Amino acid sequence: MFFKEAKSHPATLTSEKQISGRRMFYEELFEKLNKSGVDYVVVGGVALVLHGVVRLTADLDLMVHLEEGNLSKFVDIMNELGYRPKVPVKSEEFINAKTRATWINEKNMKVFSFFHPERPIHLVDVFVEEPVDYNVIRSEAVTIMSGSVSMPVVSVKNLIKLKEISGRPQDIADIAALREIEKSGRR
Known about the structure:
This protein is an alpha+beta fold.
């Protein structure tokens, strides 16, 4: 489950979206990313849920701007919070563009996954390349609040693009749900 009960963190109403009386599993991560100025956007299943699609998801998919300094801050935060790579490499290797290119070319890697050894349900997947230009994704992202934490979330239009690229059966179903949101004018 993406949200957990948290009476001490009431929902914050924003012009974008309201999340009712629950604290997100990843709220501490968002707080740290924002405080450190990491340039990122929430994508994937969590973005789908935040846009109003009812769907079970536990992992967090992120597009992080793949600039070295930004990735360095991101990796520092992941290490500080206790996240570890799922693959047997050091998390700092994710920062290197040549290493990521090797993973893409030799391993067909799409995302670099971090897990939390003390909280196995906490899984964070980060794109190793940009399937859609990051600057477009970021400039068209919407801000959604949970408690006092804001999150840049991919727009419905760009989430559809990302899901079309992925093309898995679940993504096709997600696209249909997102198109219904577009039709209804909720986004």
